Amino acid sequence: MGLLTKGSPLTWAETIPHIEYIKKHGIKQFINLYHRLKSRHGDQLKWGDEIEYTIIKFDHENKKVRVSCRAEELLNRLQAEEQVNAMLGTANRFLWRPEFGAYMIEGTPGMPYGGLIACFNIVEANMKLRREVVKKLLKKDETCLSISFPSLGVPGFTFPDVPADKTNDDAANSIFWPEQAVFLGHPRFKNLTKNIKGRRGSKVAINVPIFKDTNTPSPYVEDLSAFGGPDDTRDAKPDHIYMDHMGFGMGCCCLQVTFQAVNVDEARWLYDQLTPITPILLALSAATPIFRGKLSNVDSRWDIISASVDDRTLEERGLEPLKNSKWVIDKSRYDSTDCYIYPCSVGYNDIPLQYDETIYQQLIDGNIDEPLAKHIAHMFIRDPHQVFRERIEQDDEKSSEHFETIQSSNWMNMRFKPPPPDAPEIGWRVEFRPTEVQLTDFENAAYCCFVVLLTRMIISFRLTYLMPISMVTENMKRAQQIDAVLSQKFLFRKGLAECKSAPENLKGSEKCGPPSQDIEEMSIDEIINGKKNGFPGLISLIRQFLDSADVDVDTRCTISQYLNFISKRATGEISTLAHWTREFVQSHPAYKHDSDVNDTIVYDLMKKMDAISSGEDHCDKLLGCYRSKTDHAISAAVRKAEEHMIVSSQKRAH
Ligand code: GLU
Ligand code: MG
């Protein structure tokens, strides 16, 4: 989830006097880094996934499920292997990192995947093994699920069971969330929680619209008196599920994919091209319909996380006239990006950007071009929440810590990532961040490979999906609606458009034209599977790309399974996890059609999910019928054949 350096963390009050200094030096660090590495060229298209998992504990006797707050203990054991490998000089199969919740762990492949198409065949096997390795460390009644837990914040939701203590400032005075449910093995998570509350001037308020079922009272006003007094619950809105802690959002799980680009230009270009795709993936991956044990009127975590880290003051939120704050800011620091960053995309930047003139000027004086300077300056309207007393003074030539502390707490749908100063093997990257994590490894591999294939296809055909950036914001809202795949239309480019101004390495040279007006509303099915006499569909474009590449039989088979699956999710033939979960709840005998998803239902839901995720049970409605040929390694013969093909096609091109 971001920077994990250590030291003595400053409180919000202690941070204030250092904010300007941190920002000034963060910008200086970025400028230095940019110029040192801007001409870095020729990095391979490497990529990798990140999956966040929830550790669950069943109480079979009482038919209750809790999250098991053992992440720290598990991580110690999982990371021990990394230390041994470092000593022996052997490769890691996975890397494990902490996440916000004391019950969460985040896993990535040990090494990034490379440019060979055959890599697509080893993703799922790595995900499977990753899960098995965690499961081996679990106790009898525990399991590891790649989901966002539906009962976060209900009484007794953690194991060990620690009640929330609203007098505890470290727990941000939540009436639902105990401090112990935050990962305390690293100070980052508690700091962020406290300092977000400090900056905002009150605890966060998350109000998710309740799903109005036949027996749901209307207006729906929850009696919260058992949790706290009127002061503790004053932000609770009628007809909403109320939550008051960062964990309700950041304690949700996702699937992210990071790509390394050939150079900085390609990274900036990809950032832009993938941005309009983010809402499409959010809708297609919808997996989170229940919050605090209640059916909500949305299918995804996005706005909930956004509100859970919303550190804007009342003035910044436009609720009081500006006096002490500089701007009214439309979005929380977790939300969709406000601007494209590749020079030729700026015609599509139609959202007014707030930024500090001094910071912007510092970037311009540091020879950062205008679009990038605006992006960075706009990110820097956010204050740092993690400042360590010992680490304020830094060598700006060598460190990028002050830059990173702000960059890594701007949680947007896409992230543009400069190479780290101390890892010469890593180049310019972009991260694709909206996808909701899926229940099974097959699905996660399918979404991950789909996004990577999309990238390869876009680069190879130099296609452009740009639209005014405000439309992406609009699409993100639509993507979260119930069954958005079927119920919503999305603004999208009408036909196929080639990008005339793709970076040089993509062989583009022409000047950028005026922004295209060729945008219409399309369903997810039309965007993914194509429209008669219109947009051909992302899947058929990917298939065309694959036809032009040399792909071994097994990999092609696996990719086909993934594409078929995504295609069927887009038509609705296969349900999203959100849809499937709603159906499960609605047909459960203990459900009273009053939006309340009680312990018994959640217990049965988790048991079913566990069975499906482990392969014990197969669910056609959720997964369709598939047989992936995923394998643990690329065989030497396949590797040799593909490498040979690449070399000969390069020779032909010269
Ligand atoms: N868990 C967050 C999400 O679901 C992401 C945290 C991170 O940036 O790793 O979007
Ligand atoms: Mg994470």
Any chance you could write out the topology, listing elements then pairs?
Layout lengths: L11 H4 L3 H19 L9 E13 L4 E5 L2 H18 L5 E5 L5 E6 L13 H14 L5 E4 L12 E2 L27 H14 L5 E4 L30 E4 L3 H4 L4 E6 L3 H11 L3 H7 L5 E2 L2 E2 L6 H7 L25 E2 L21 H9 L4 H10 L21 H7 L3 E2 L1 E4 L11 E4 L8 H21 L7 H11 L4 H4 L2 E4 L25 E4 L1 H6 L8 H11 L4 H19 L5 H10 L12 H16 L5 H4 L12 H18 L1
Parallel strand pairs: 2-6, 12-13
Antiparallel strand pairs: 1-2, 1-4, 1-5, 1-9, 3-4, 7-8, 9-15, 10-11, 14-15, 16-17
Helix pairs in contact: 2-12, 4-13, 8-14, 10-11, 13-17, 13-18
- Helix/sheet category: alpha+beta
How many structural domains?
Answer: 2
Ligand inventory reads: glutamic acid, magnesium ion
CATH architecture of the largest domain: 2-Layer Sandwich
Number of helices: 22
Query: What gap, in angstroms, lies between the N and C termini?
Result: 43 Å
Can you tell me the CATH class of the largest domain? Answer: Alpha Beta
What is the approximate shape? globular
* Beta-strand content: 5-15%
What is the radius of gyration? Answer: 24 Å
Q: Helical residue percent?
A: 25-40%
Query: Which whole number gives the mean pLDDT?
Result: 94
Low-confidence stretches: none
**Overall strand count:** 17
For this structure, the CATH topology of the largest domain is Creatine Kinase, Chain A, domain 2
InterPro entries: GCS, Gln_synth/guanido_kin_cat_dom
Organism: Caenorhabditis remanei (Caenorhabditis vulgaris)
Keywords: ATP-binding, Glutathione biosynthesis, Ligase, Nucleotide-binding
GO molecular function, one term: glutamate-cysteine ligase activity
